[in-house]
Design a protein that fits this description.
By secondary structure, the chain is an alpha+beta fold. The chain is built from 22 helices and 26 strands. Strand 20 and strand 21 form a beta hairpin. Helix 2 (29-57) packs antiparallel against helix 10 and helix 11 runs parallel beside helix 18.
Length: 694
């Protein structure tokens, strides 16, 4: 092209000056700019296509020409095609502008009016809402000036690809302003190039249609960007499919799709209403929103009948919902590249939704690579991001293997920051990553693992605490009706009284002198149940058997205390003979009992001895071979667990820890160098002291 289309980028942002002068907040700029950008984009393409068609068919009757033009399926506007009048022509007469501009908008074909939001009712989807935005600008008395400024931007000399380039630059700036709060990240061109290079490295160039899909396509920059870059290197025909739930971004993508050979963009929430349920795709690319909750459609997800969702992630972050949908719609020989933040690598414990989802991906052997991007790569976030490469048709030599690529240091700094984007991947950086992915071998920034490396056992156990002698209190055995011998859970005590004698307590001695309470202060409590709920239950719960001043007496004259040093229950008989029962608990409970035929209502206090049990878990390496895995667990327990325990549930988890895999210990300085620095400091201090006369 003889003129660089990006020269219009600054002209477009001049329209923002009118918005600022009208008191419109910067965060609302996309709302007021998107409709007009779409308008000039559509008009320029209609003008260009009309010129092309006239050159192709020559002079014919206008009605016949209009009919032929409408058959092109690009949209239509009677002002532009039949009357040969553009926005620039309308703006030449400011007195007739209001009438002409309204007529101009009404002259579009129904679908274009639908997308632009021309004269939409209050209950209808407004998409770009150009009528509503124009009405607001008219109230602020800047509508004419705004349309006039936009009309000076002539895009007719440029091709679809060139207009798309300008569109991506503008949408990127809108993303800087608004996407951070929406959880959306505009995918920069260098990342789109890397994603495309990865796809091309795994794709054949032949005559069959290559279907590309983006379930969170936004304005289409990632989807169409990948398609355009594939077409630069392949002759293979392509067709794009996309969907999005953002009114304005969907409308931009849909308008763009009409000027592409084969493209189908639909409106809707991918997670609750699958637009292409009957299809599976060769290639899927996506940069789904992350850190955004899905509470608003939680019931729809939970009631989903497609069986897409093997597990549900945290309600606060729905990105793994999109990834499950992607794998559901990926063809059996398909490839997907999905952008995620770091939380999808490790968030959620074994058994959680996130871990179960990761395990599902790894169990099916769909994960071929995970690539860590540099920080400061995106326009409105500085965090690390990751490309998950899913392949449902791995080569035999890559089965059950995953390559981790740490590309965090593969970048060149930008001379001028673009929002928070301070780095980009050069052609050489991208080539190095793709070559490493293709080679599938270890090097300084790549590690190949068996997929089982990322699995682990979370083995739950029940520990029995013991005293300093290695003893726990012994429970008596019981025999069931079937003759099965098992251990009682507790030893019941016949309580006479419970005391906590502590001179440092404000209330002096605290005591329970009866196990059946019937008396209470009727001036303070309305009933015995009220007394129990408001006071006595908490009073009993406050007794702590580990308090040094705690003593429980039973009706046989035995006293029970707890020796905190020896961590054992001590019992003394009426002759003060002392015995150590072992580690355990003295459990005191209270309950309200209704009146019966033989007893009045009362509060019952009970006490029992139990083992001191503690539920715990251990994280243990995993093996897919059951016998080996059990040996791993047994060996670990024998080495690290010293208390008696029982096995409980074992849950298999999956997580990926990039920091651990690529950890580089800090290089310590040589002792000789450190000593030399210290001596230099001492000499410097001596000189200072001499100068000060100290």
């Amino acid at each position: 092209m003889s003129i660089n289309i990006l020269k219009y980028e600054s002209d477009i942002w001049k329209t923002a000056d009118l918005l600022i002068g009208s008191g419109i907040k910067q965060s609302e700029f996309p709302k007021f700019m998107m409709p007009f950008f779409a308008l000039i984009m559509v008009e320029s393409r209609l003008v260009r296509e009309a010129k092309r068609l006239k050159e192709q068919i020559g002079d014919i009757d206008m009605d016949d020409f209009v009919e032929m033009f409408e058959l092109e399926g690009l949209g239509y506007n009677d002002f532009v095609i039949r009357k040969n009048k553009t926005l620039k022509d309308i703006c030449k007469n400011d007195k007739a502008f209001d009438v002409d501009f309204h007529a101009y908008l009404k002259a579009f074909d129904p679908e274009t009016k639908y997308l632009l939001g021309v004269d939409k009712g209050t209950e209808e989807e407004k998409f770009l809402d150009i009528s509503g935005v124009s009405g607001q600008l008219k109230k602020k008395r800047v509508l004419f000036e705004t349309v006039q400024t936009w009309s000076e931007i002539d895009l007719t000399p440029f091709s679809n690809s060139e207009i798309t380039t300008l569109e991506e630059h503008i949408k990127r700036k809108w993303a800087d302003i608004s996407a951070e709060t929406a959880g959306e990240q505009y995918t920069p061109d260098d990342i789109i190039s890397l994603i495309t290079d990865i796809i091309i490295s795994k794709t054949e160039d032949n005559e069959s249609f290559l279907t590309l899909y983006d379930p969170t396509c936004g304005g289409g920059n990632l989807l169409f960007g990948v398609e355009d870059k594939i077409k630069e290197k392949f002759k293979r025909p392509t067709k794009t499919f996309g969907e999005d739930w953002s009114d304005s971004l969907f409308a931009l993508a849909k308008i763009e799709s009409r000027f592409r050979n084969d493209s189908d963009i639909r409106y809707g929430n991918t997670l609750t209403n699958i637009s292409f349920i009957e299809k599976q795709f060769d290639i899927i690319v996506a940069n789904p929103p992350y850190g955004v909750d899905w509470k608003g459609y939680q019931k729809d997800i939970q009631n989903d009948t497609t069986e897409r969702f093997v597990a549900l992630p945290s309600i606060s972050d729905g990105q793994f919902l999109f990834t499950q949908h992607i794998l559901y719609q990926l063809a059996n020989d398909g490839l997907a590249v999905v952008v995620h933040n770091g939380s999808t690598l490790f968030s959620g414990d074994a058994g959680s939704g996130e871990s179960a989802i990761r395990k599902h991906f790894f169990d099916n052997d769909w994960v071929e690579a995970i690539i860590q991007m540099p920080t400061d790569e995106f326009f409105n976030t500085g965090i690390y991001t990751y490309l998950w490469v899913f392949n449902k048709n791995k080569s035999v030599d890559r089965e059950n293997q995953v390559i981790l690529i740490n590309a965090a240091d593969l970048f060149v700094p930008l001379k001028k920051s673009k929002g928070k984007k301070r780095k980009e991947m050069s052609f050489d950086n991208r080539t190095e990553i793709v070559n490493a992915f293709t080679a599938f071998k270890d090097n300084d920034f790549c590690k190949v693992f068996d997929k089982w490396h990322f699995y682990y056992n979370k083995q739950s156990i029940m520990l029995t605490n013991i005293d300093e002698f290695g003893k726990a209190i012994e429970m008596p055995n019981k025999v069931s009706k079937d003759g099965i011998v098992s251990e009682e859970k507790s030893i019941k005590l016949d309580v006479k009284s419970i005391l906590v004698v502590d001179s440092f307590k404000e209330n002096g001695m605290k005591a329970i002198n009866t196990t059946e309470v019937t008396e209470f202060d009727k001036t303070a409590y309305s009933s015995l149940t009220n007394y129990f709920e408001k006071y006595y239950k908490a009073f009993v719960n406050d007794f702590d058997y580990k308090d040094d001043a705690f003593i429980l007496f039973d009706i046989q004259g035995n006293s029970f205390t707890y020796d905190n040093d020896k961590e054992t229950i001590v019992v003394k008989d009426k002759n003060q003979k002392e015995s150590f029962l072992g580690n355990g608990k003295i459990v005191i409970k209270s309950s309200y009992k209704k009146a019966s035929k033989t007893k009045a209502e009362h509060i019952l206090v009970t006490a029992e001895l139990t083992k001191d049990l503690q539920k715990d878990y251990e994280i243990i390496p995993y093996s897919p071979i059951e016998e080996t895995n059990q040996n791993y667990i047994a060996t670990f327990m024998a080495k690290y667990i010293t208390k008696p325990f029982e096995y409980l549930d074992n849950t298999i988890g999956v997580e990926i820890n990039f920091n651990k895999v690529f950890y580089k210990p800090e290089q310590l300085r040589d002792i000789v160098e450190i000593t030399a620095d210290l001596m230099e400091l001492e000499n410097h201090l001596t000189i200072l002291e001499n100068d000060l006369g100290l």
